[in-house]
Amino acid sequence: MRYWKVEARCGHIRKNKYIVKTFYIKAECGEEAAEITRWKPRVKHHHKKAIISVKEIDRDAYLAGIKSNRDDPYFQATSKQEQKANCIGIEYESLYEEEEIRYKKKTNIRQHLIKCQLDREWRKERSYVQYE
Fold it and tell me: Are 23 and 35 in contact (CB under 8 A)?
C-alpha cells in the first residue's frame, strides 16, 4: 500500500461556497485514492472537479496528516448546528465561490405544442366573453 495526500472541494459551508480540505488516504494508486476521497463525507461528490490534486507522500507525512485531520473541528462536527458552533474560524480560511452552473431544462416538443395550443384556445374563448 502507498500513501496519498488528496485535496478536495468540501461543502456545507455557505450557499455557493466551498473550502479546500486535504485527505490522507492509503491506496494502491492515485486513481483509487481519488475515488475513495470523492465518496468521503463532506466532499462535493457529484462535482466534476471535486478532486483538486493527488500527491504521493511518505508514511510519516501520512500519520501526521491523519492526526491533524483528527484535531480539525471541521471534520469533528456531526451536524450543521455543531459545525456552526465549533467552526467559527472557518470564515477566515479561504472560502471559494462556486462557478455558476446553469442547466438548461429540456422541454419536450410535444408538451410545448400542447401548451401553446391550450393557450391559443384559452385566448380565443376569452376574446368572446364580454363583461358588464
Answer: no
